[in-house]
C-alpha cells in the first residue's frame, strides 16, 4: 500500500478530475505551432509590428519562436493608389492556447493598437491573422484554418518562406510552390528594417 492510501486525511480524487487534469497536462507539454501574419499601413508601421510581436510574447501560453524579415507591400484587394503601402511580416509561435483563444488574443493585440474596423480590407494600424495552427483545417467563418486567403498572398507567403522554407499550407501544399505560382510582384524586401525576436 502506498503512502496516499494509508493517510486517512487524503480523499480519493474522482476519476473525472484525474482525466481533466491529465488532458490539460498533455496540452501544456505538447504546445502547437502556429503561424501568424502581421500587417500595418497606418502610423509608425515598424514600431506597431514590433509592439504586436512583444504583446504576443507577453501572452501566457505563447512563445514567439521566429520573426521574419520585413517586406514593404502594395495593398492587396483594393484599388491601386487608394491606400498607403503595408509593412508585412510573419511570426512562428509555439502555443498551449487552443485556436479560439489565440484568435481572441490576436484581436486584443489589434485593439491595443487602436485598430478601427470600417471597411473590408481598409487601411489599418495593425492586422493580426492566424495563417495556420498545427495541421488544423476548419471552415468556421469565425476562425477559418488555414487562413482562407493566405495561399493567394505573397505578402504572407514570402516572409513565411524566409523563416520556414520547408513549410506546407494545409490543403494547398508547399509554401515555396505557392509562392512560385503567384510571384512576388509588389512585395519588396526591406533589409534596412528589422524586427526583434523578444528575449
Ligand atoms: N484565420 C483567421 N485569422 C484571423 N481572423 C479570421 C480567421 N478566420 C476567420 N477570421 C475572422 O475574420 C474576421 C475579419 O477579420 P479581419 O477584420 O482581420 O479581416 P481583414 O484582415 O480585413 O481581411 P482578411 O480576412 O482578408 O485578412 C475576424 O473577426 C475573424 O473572426
Ligand atoms: N499588402 C497588403 N495588403 C493587404 C493586407 C496586408 O497585410 N498587406 N491585409 C489585408 C487584410 O488582411 C488586405 N490587403
Automatic annotation (TrEMBL):
So which domain of life are we looking at? Answer: Bacteria
What is the enzyme's class at the highest EC level? Answer: transferase
- In the UniProt record, the gene name given for this protein reads folK
Example GO molecular function: 2-amino-4-hydroxy-6-hydroxymethyldihydropteridine diphosphokinase activity
Tell me what reaction this enzyme catalyses. Answer: 6-hydroxymethyl-7,8-dihydropterin + ATP = (7,8-dihydropterin-6-yl)methyl diphosphate + AMP + H(+)
For this protein, the record's CDD domains field holds: HPPK (cd00483)
Q: Which InterPro entries match?
A: Hppk (IPR000550), Hppk_sf (IPR035907)
What protein name applies here?
2-amino-4-hydroxy-6-hydroxymethyldihydropteridine diphosphokinase
Q: Domain 7,8-dihydro-6-hydroxymethylpterin-pyrophosphokinase: where?
A: 120-131
Pfam families, alphabetized: HPPK
Amino acid at each position: 500500500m502506498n503512502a496516499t492510501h494509508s493517510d486517512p486525511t487524503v480523499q480519493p480524487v474522482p476519476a473525472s478530475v484525474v482525466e481533466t487534469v491529465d488532458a490539460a497536462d498533455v496540452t501544456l507539454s505538447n504546445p502547437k505551432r502556429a503561424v501568424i501574419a502581421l500587417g500595418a499601413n497606418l502610423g509608425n508601421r515598424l514600431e506597431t509590428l514590433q509592439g504586436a510581436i512583444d504583446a504576443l510574447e507577453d501572452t501566457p501560453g505563447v512563445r514567439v519562436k521566429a520573426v521574419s524579415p520585413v517586406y514593404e507591400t502594395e495593398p492587396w484587394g483594393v484599388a491601386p493608389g487608394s491606400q498607403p503601402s503595408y509593412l508585412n511580416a510573419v511570426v512562428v509561435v509555439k502555443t498551449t492556447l487552443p485556436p479560439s483563444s489565440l484568435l481572441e488574443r490576436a484581436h486584443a493585440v489589434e485593439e491595443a493598437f487602436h485598430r478601427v474596423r470600417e471597411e473590408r480590407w481598409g487601411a489599418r494600424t495593425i492586422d493580426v491573422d492566424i495563417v495556420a495552427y498545427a495541421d488544423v483545417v476548419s471552415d468556421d467563418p469565425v476562425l477559418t484554418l488555414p487562413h482562407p486567403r493566405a495561399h493567394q498572398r505573397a505578402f504572407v507567403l514570402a516572409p513565411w518562406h524566409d523563416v520556414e522554407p520547408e513549410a506546407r499550407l494545409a490543403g494547398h501544399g508547399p509554401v515555396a510552390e505557392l509562392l512560385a505560382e503567384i510571384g512576388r510582384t509588389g512585395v519588396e524586401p526591406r533589409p534596412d528594417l528589422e524586427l526583434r525576436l523578444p528575449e
